[in-house]
Amino acid sequence: MMLALQSLGLLPLVVGLALFRWRRCRGRSALDSLVDAAVLLVGGIWLLANGLSLFGALQPGPLRVVWAIAGVIAAFALWRWRRVDGQIPGPIDRVEKLLGIAIAALLLVTLVRAVVAPPNTVDALNYHLPRQVMWLQQGGLDPYETVNDRENMMPPLAEIVGLQFLALTGDDYWANLPQWFAYAGLALALALLARRLGASRQAALGAALLGLLVPMAYHEASNAKNDLFATFWLVILAVRLVPWREATFKPSRADAAGIAVAAALACLTKSTALVYAPLLGLVALWPWLRRSNGMARARTLLLALLVWLTLVAPFHLRNQAWYGSPLGQHQGKDGGAQTNEAMGPRLLVSNILRHATLHLLGPMPDWNEAWVNVVKKAHDGMGADLNDPRVTLWILKFSPDYSPAAEMVAGAPAHFILGVPLLLAIAGGMIGGGNGSRARWLAIFVLLGALAFCAIVKWQLWAARLQLPLFSLGAVAVVVAVDGWPARARRLGALLGIALALLAWWPGADTEERPLWTKPSLWNFSRDANFYRVFPILEAREASLVELVQRSGVHSLYLHNLHDISYPVTRRLRKQVAGLRFSGAPAGYLFESPPEGVLMLSLGAPLALYMEFAGRSDWRLVGRGVGAGLYLPEQRVRELGMWHELPAYAGWVRHVGLPTFDLPLSNGQSVIVRDFPTGEGSLAYEARGRQLTLKAGVLRLDRASRELLTLFVKVGGVVIAGVDLAPTENEQMFEVVVPGRVGPHVIEISGGQRAAGKLRFTQMQIVDENPGRE
């Protein structure tokens, strides 16, 4: 049964293969036919999802019926088109064979990783996959109530493609494969673009190989994100723009629609395409804009714009209706807005230097430290803030690190160091000849695109992956230009470029999240366990939460998740709690009835004892573990006998001086404790007019000491208790009763300098001991 369900994931591929054969029958080349098939298939998926969404039918049943019918038709078409005359490629030389083998090896390694590993990238688990679950549950793409607005407002195309496989197979075994198909497609598109620009077959294969060796592309090939997907569409857009630059080219309506569709698919995949696509179009179309007459130009551009708007409109209209903005509403609090909030020469230089740093760090600590110091001194010289919140995302600080195996922050040092000087030379006309001039517009776009990115997008540690389209298209521009050099210089340049790219790629060849040969590898754990490779502490937490939901008997659950990862527990709940629905209201509607429970995920952050939700304020926390809990109506908590079950750190909403610390254990797992670095801390809580109790467990780190440490507990500045802690290896528990009061209050815990850095709290709860007392 399991194998039969998974085989349903082949249906879209059968349809795609039929589209490929159809294009071949129409006389298109193999590469062109593959690109056309990809555009038609994914464009069709977008139209299908939006069409079914109108009727609330975007669910596994209808999708399986549609794909089964499409699969039968495609199989019949393949049988009819089984004989297609095509061009026979010329003899393949030794260099082409070596390049082909290298490309095949990269595709094979990433395919194995994509198939064997579960989707375990933080962003994928935070919102890419949860939104697919909600869309299938509600039968449509309408926004729904969630604190994590990324699930609603981010461009949805990559996830809608992934949703097809989730609906068809019933599980996420195919979740990483859309990005892998984009990786394989990127190799084809880069080779096609190079050929369109006049490069030889060897150079086209070299461009494909260099594109696959960009670390960000390699890492993305086996995860469930969307950067690689967006890059693929932007390269296709570049391919379709090449003919427009020819003096004899007269665009047809199909040509105008073709560039509009490619641009739309890119913009529907990732918001950064809104930065790149218009600029790419302007640079590529400039010769045509100058030579065409006004009326013809206006008609062509208007048609392209209408096609683009028609495709992107459903997504942006949903955002407009829900958020009042077609792009959604990015939180500006703490610098959460994605785009720069100010810009000027100093701020632009700051972003250029800091973004360049992501690609200039390497395995040489002295060099890394020297370059970071250069960046800091440059900021001091300009009088600029290194962490200016107007051009820095969220609350991040400029502290880049060389981490080639970490997919979210890996840079591309070889491509950057070699590529930037060559791109400048190509753009400036210093590398001339036919090939250099044909690649010049592409080099100009890459350089302008980098400037536009720095001018529009805030600096962030994980920005390298957002720049993947620039590196992919830049690789083509460089390869095409080098292909025009004299034979000896061309061979030397190609050898140097590929060798350095391989050297830069190798340290990250086995990723931290999904290692194939570095111990402990994917093969050492079950697939379910590998979901938690990034945060292993969460595996036990998720099991506890599922058991808690089962005991509570709830049938509708709201999942409150902002920066935590919610997909693994969602997946477990779908499998283990029969009939459970995740609460979320379609746009324009209120909840028909409030959910029966609220599951709060917060990665070690404190949880309030009570919360207000869906018009009622008596939601009471229950749970175990750290950083997550279940809120149920207070009366229900009493009925279930769960009153004294609380997470290890719970009952307050804010804290000072008690930072979390992930403490490794001998069994390979870890626990979250709270440090006491200054010897002073405080907890802000809502008293609610009841007598409460502070319960705490603490470990002393100076176990060899002979003196007692005394902690003083204060409320409102008044000492209400003193707690003596002996120098022992054992956990010490204490309780302090907090008098009944109403409103927000603060509990202060003070040990002075004698306690600074010597204590770790293993639990700390503010709990109501008397559930019936008002």
Describe this structure in words.
The protein has 25 helices and 17 strands. The chain is α+β, with helices and mostly antiparallel strands and 774 residues long. Strand 4 and strand 5 form a beta hairpin. Helix 5 (94-116) packs antiparallel against helix 9, helix 10 packs antiparallel against helix 20 and helix 12 crosses helix 20 (468-482). The longest helix is centred in the middle third of the chain and has 30 residues, at 294-323. The relative contact order is 0.08.
Shape: globular
Secondary-structure-derived class: alpha+beta
- Mind describing the biggest β-sheet? 6 strands, mixed
Q: What's the N-to-C terminus distance?
A: 55 Å
List the helices and strands and how they pair.
Layout: H1 2-7, H2 11-25, H3 30-54, H4 60-80, H5 94-116, H6 122-138, H7 150-153, H8 157-169, H9 177-196, H10 201-212, H11 215-220, H12 227-241, H13 253-267, H14 273-291, H15 294-323, H16 345-360, H17 365-382, H18 413-427, H19 433-456, H20 468-482, H21 487-505, H22 527-530, H23 538-552, E1 556-561, H24 567-576, E2 581-582, E3 597-601, E4 610-613, E5 616-622, E6 628-633, H25 634-640, E7 649-650, E8 654-656, E9 660-664, E10 670-675, E11 680-686, E12 692-700, E13 709-715, E14 718-725, E15 732-738, E16 744-750, E17 759-768
Parallel strand pairs: 1-2, 1-3, 7-17
Antiparallel strand pairs: 3-6, 4-5, 5-6, 8-11, 9-10, 10-17, 11-16, 12-15, 12-17, 13-14, 13-16
Helix pairs in contact: 2-3, 2-4, 3-8, 3-9, 4-8, 5-9, 5-10, 6-8, 9-10, 9-12, 9-20, 10-20, 12-13, 12-14, 12-20, 13-15, 14-19, 16-17, 16-18, 16-19, 18-19, 18-20, 18-21, 19-20, 23-24
